[in-house]
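dumping this here before i forget
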Amino acid sequence: MSTAVRIEKTGATGLVILNAPPVNALGQGLRAGLIQAVEALNADPQVEVISIYGEGRALSAGADIREFGQAPQAPNLPVVLNAIEASAKPVVITLHGVALGGGLELCLACHARVALPSTRLGLPEVTLGLLPGAGGTQRLPRLVPLEIALEAVTTGRQFSAEEALAAGLVDRLADGTPHEVALQAAADVLSSALETRRTSDLKADVDQALIAGAVARLSDRRPVLSAPIKAAKAISHAAEPIESGLKAERSLFLELMESPDRQGLVHAFGAERAVRKIPETGTPRNIASAGVIGGGTMGVGIATALLTAGLSVTLVETTLERAESACLVVAKNLDGAVKRGKLTQALRDENLQKLTPAVDYDALADCDLVIEAVFEDMAVKTEIFSKLDRICKAGAILGTNTSYLDVNQIAAATTRPEDVIGLHFFSPAHVMRLLEVVVADKTGSDVVATAFALAGRMKKVAVRSGVCDGFIGNRILAHYRKSADYMLLDGADFDQIDKALEDFGFAMGPFAVADLAGLDIAWANRKRKAATRPPEERYSAIADRLCEAGSFGRKTGSGFYTYGSGKARSVNPDAEAAVQAERQAEGIEPRSFSDEEIVSRYMAAMISEAVRVLEEGIAQRPVDIDAVFLFGYGFPRHLGGPLNYADRIGAANLVSRIESYAKEDPYFWQVPALLRNMAETGQRFAGLNKENTDGS
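structure:
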C-alpha cells in the first residue's frame, strides 16, 4: 500500500489515515492508497465500519499542485470516490483544518461526515478555471439546498463548520483530536447513533429556473468567465441518476481543462509561489521591532501591516499630535480587521500595545528595521537616511517606501548601503498584497532574504525588482497610461476607454484609477520628470488642466468623473471641456476608436514596456512582472498577467501591431529587441519562466 495512506484497526473499526501531511494533497499515491485501503478493509471480516481522517493540520486541501500540467495518473479522483461511495461497509469521515476541493468531494462520497468546529470547507475549483470534477456538483445538491450548492461551486467561497452543519453538509460537530473524533464517529455508526447513507441515493431538489437565473447573472458579469457558468450548468444534472449526472459533470470539466481561462488562473496561482525564488541566498536577519517614518496613508498602512505580523512598531511624525493621530488611524485599521474576521479582538489589543508614537528619530535607535514613508522628494529622503545612518544600530535594515526614486542614490546618503533596500508597498499597505522589494547595487543578500521573509510574515506577495524609475510596476504603468492619454487626445472618450478595459477584465479603467489614486500624485511626478522629457515624445496636458483647476479626483469630489455618495461616478463636464480644449490646442481632429482597438493598443503598450523591463534585468523573469500586475494593479486574474497574456496573442502578432501603430508615432511605438527575437524564433514567455524557475 502507498505510504501516503495507512490503516489501523481498533476492534470493529478500520481507520484509514491520510498520511501526506501537512495538507494531505490528493496526489497519485494518496489516491491509490485510498482505494487499496477501502478494498482491504471491506475484505477484512473483523471490520464493520471504516473511518477516515487526516494527519497534519488538515483533512485535505485538495489537488496536488505538483501534478498541475502533468499527464493524469491512475486512479483519477472520480474513480476513487465512486469506489468509496460504493463500499459495502459504512464509511465515515472526520473533517478538520480544511476540506477543500477534492478534499471536500471525498467527504461528499463518504456515508457520514463529522467536523471539528474550526474546520473550513469549500469547493474553490472555479478560482482555477475549473469545476468540482469528482462528483462535487452532483453530490453537494443532494445534501444541501440548491442555493447553497450554487454559491459554493460558482464562487469558491469557504464555509465554516457551523454553516456546513446548518446546511446539512456535515452531520455533526465534535471536539477532540481527529483521531479521537474518528474513533467516536465509528463507534456511533456501529451503535446507530450516527446515521449513514450513500449520497447518491438521496434526491436533489433541482429548480431549473433558479439555475437558469444564476447562469444569466454569471453571463452578465464582466469579464464573462466560463468556469462558474459551466459549474452551474453541471448542477442542473443533479436530479438525474448519479451515473448520468457524473457523466455530464465530467464532460463539462474536461471542456474547462482546455480553456484559456484555466491556463491563466493556474499561472496566476503558480506565480505567487514562483516569485519566492530569488538569486540571493543570505540568511534572513531577525526582525522583532520596526520604525515607520511618516504618519500619512502609507505610513499608517505599513505600521498596521507590521503590527499584524507581530512586530513592535515606533511611528515617527513631526509632532506628537500628528503621531498620536496616526496611531488612532492604525487602531481603526485593526478594528476593521476584527470586523472582517481577520483578527481577534484580543490580538488586536495585543498588537496595539506594541505601537508607540514618537517625534524624535532617536526613538528608532534600537529598531531592527526602519521604513521611511514620506513624500516623494529625493532631498527629503536622503536627509532622513543620513540621520538614520547616524542613529540606527549596526545591522538595522533601512527601507524606503519610494514609488519611483533611485534607491542607489538614497543608499549613498549612508555609510552602510548594504543595509538599504526599497520596500515599495501599495496603498492601502495593510490590505494590498504586493510588495516590490527593490534591490540596490550594494544591498546585502541577507537584507534581500530578510525582506522576503518579512513579506511572508505580513502575508504579502514579494517580487524582486532592480532599480529604475518606477521599478517594475510604476515604470510599466507610466508607459501604458500614456497610450490611454494618446487615445483620449486622438478622439476616444475617457469613459469609453474605461468601460472597454473594465469589460476586458480590469476592475477599474485608467481614468477611474487616476481619480482614485489622486491626480495630483501623477502630476507631481510629471513635473519632476519634465526637464528630462524628450522633445519627440507626445505630451497630454489634459490631467494637468484638471489639477490646475483643483480637481484631484475622488479626494476633491471631481477629476475625470464627479463623485456623489457611495461609489457612483458620472462624467465630469469640466473634464470633457479640458479634453476639447487640449485637442484644439494641439490641432487634433478627433477620430473614433472601437473597444477592441482600445484594448489592443493599451495591452500592446503594457506588454512592450514589460518586455523592456525584462530585457534590462529589472525583473528576473516574466512571471515576476505577471505577479506585480496580478497582485498590485488589478490585472484580470484569468488572463494570468501581461506576459502570460502576451503568449496568447503571440510575439509575431504583437510585433505586427506595434509596427502598425508606429506609423503614426514612431517614438512611442517601438518593438523591443527581445520581442522581435521571440517572434523570429517562435519563443514564448512561458519558456523564459521555465529557464529561470521551477515555478509556474
